[in-house]
Amino acid sequence: MATLGDNLKVNGDRLWDSLMEMAKIGPGVAGGNNRQTLTTADKEGRELFQRWCDEAGLEMGVDKMGTMFARREGTDPDALPVYVGSHLDTQPTGGKYDGVLGVLGGLELIRTLNDLDIKTKHPIVVTNWTNEEGTRFAPAMLASGVFAGVHKLDWAYDRADAKGLKFGDELKRIGWVGDEEVGTRKMKAFFELHIEQGPILEAEGKDIGVVTHGQGLWWLQVTLTGKDAHTGSTPMPMRRNAGLGMARMTELVHQIAMSHQPEAVGAIGHCDVYPNSRNVIPGKVVFTIDFRTPHQQVLDAMKARFEAEAPKIAEELGLGMEIEVSGHFDPVTFDPDCVSAVRNAAERLGYSHRDIVSGAGHDACWINKLYPTAMVMCPCVDGLSHNEAEDISKEWATAGADVLLHAVLETAEIVD
After folding, report:
1. Using the 8-state DSSP alphabet, how is residue 226 labeled?
2. Which of 161, 219, 155 is nearest to 182 (CA)?
3. Half-sphere exposure of residue 243, counting CA atoms within 13 Å on the CB side?
4. Which of 260, 270, 302, 312 is deepest in the core (most CB within 10 A)?
5. pLDDT digit string (tens) for 83-116?
6. What is the pLDDT of residue 77?
7. Which residues contact residue 246 at a Cβ distance below 8 angstroms, ignoring those fewer than 6 apart?
């Protein structure tokens, strides 16, 4: 393989321009993006990405989950491809970079290779995974989960959003049902570039996070059932207040996470209150708990404690209670060779770096079950993500894409 020089870098201005152009699709109300999966905005984002891939000479494949695979051929068409990518869908109040940086950073990698007429033995494939966020159709990382065999295709198609619209129907509506069977592709390796979504890199002044592990998670959907009643005329001792039950369980979730510090978190991030009227005591509440940690025993212990103690709260308040698992994956240890390729790239390029554990779930977590996988992270301002105020600098984006470029080329093998 040819030697990788520290002067081999992406076009940071072009990458930034692409990020800003994609951000025009599905604009949010406060400067970010609302490009939820399988919406018309998602369709438009896919079409723009498709056009850019066509211009870069890539061959597009689409599977039955709507995941997009843009391939640059290698000199050995029988060699296993090296995959890169992330996702283009966003939260309802998402930023311009979460996921998008990984997809467009991969595209910029290809554009750079084209500019310099660099050939690789192994093909390189840029991927846009469908429904990573899971905000419209739970669970998160749905398409990569089907790819990894964690979920069944029919089950995924049957996922419904808050309006009762089903994933399969909406995928068909926007015209992105591919003909390729999900999970049939083979990979030499997979690399995902992403913003940190946490404050560590910025606080320590590091350019690059070398992701060694990913947190596991349990998502538990809880339904509490009480009795709708007038807030003004129902005596306090006679109430069956589902909202009060959620409040006490919110405190329980916090206590459970705090008891396993420093590497455990937990919160209730989503809730629906019924009938949601200012003068009616809530008769029903549905909310989702998110427990995360990189330690398997701790992860399972947090779930078990909630399942043991929450029913006692419900019983004390006269509430019915149901608990359903709405998402789960075990803690992840990324491939040592791929992690080394990322670390080597950062050192070769002179970027400051540190090992880091991903606090969020990513498509890479599922692909790691099948193929050697690693992640590259760059800082984000104040660690803020899943928020329209999410922000990064052009320099951070460029550094992340540079490291991605070198890690991929080390794996895909430059041909002289």
Report:
1. -
2. 155
3. 16
4. 302
5. 999 999 999 999 999 999 999 999 999 999 999 9
6. 86
7. 222, 224, 268, 271, 273, 285, 287
Name the residue type at position 177: V
CA distances from residue 163 to 140, 155, 266 in whole angstroms, order as listed: 18, 18, 27
Q: What is the number of residues in the chain? A: 416
In this prediction, what percent of the chain has a pLDDT beyond 70? 99
pLDDT tens-place string over residues 141-154: 999 999 999 999 99
The DSSP string of 294-356 is: S-HHHHHHHHHHHHHHHHHHHHHTT-EEEEEEEEEE--EE--HHHHHHHHHHHHHHT--EEEE
Element (H, E) at 195: strand 189-195
Question: How many CB atoms neighbour CB 154 within 10 A?
Answer: 9
Tell me the two tokens of residue 128. Answer: 């846009």
Q: What is the mean predicted confidence (pLDDT) over 50-65?
A: 98
State how far the Cα of 377 lies from the Cα of 374, in Å rounded to an integer.
10
Which token pair is 345?
A: 């790239």
**Which residues contact residue 235 at a Cβ distance below 8 angstroms, ignoring those fewer than 6 apart?**
none
Residue 2 has pLDDT above 70, yes or no: no
From the list 254, 252, 331, 249, the residue with the least C-alpha distance to 296 is 331
Q: How far is residue 190's CA from residue 213's CA, in Å, rounded to a whole number?
A: 15
Tokens coding 155: 């089950």
| Cβ count within 10 A of residue 184 | 8
Token pair 């080394």 in the structure block, residue: 340
Rounded to two decimals, the pTM is 0.86
Distance (Å, whole) CA 85 – CA 127: 4
Strands 124-128 and 353-358: unpaired
Average pLDDT, the chain: 97
Residue 237 has which token pair? 């001792």
For residue range 157-205, what is the model confidence (pLDDT) as tens digits?
999 999 999 999 999 999 999 999 999 999 999 999 999 999 999 999 9
> pLDDT tens across 354-384, in order?
999 998 889 999 999 999 999 999 999 999 9
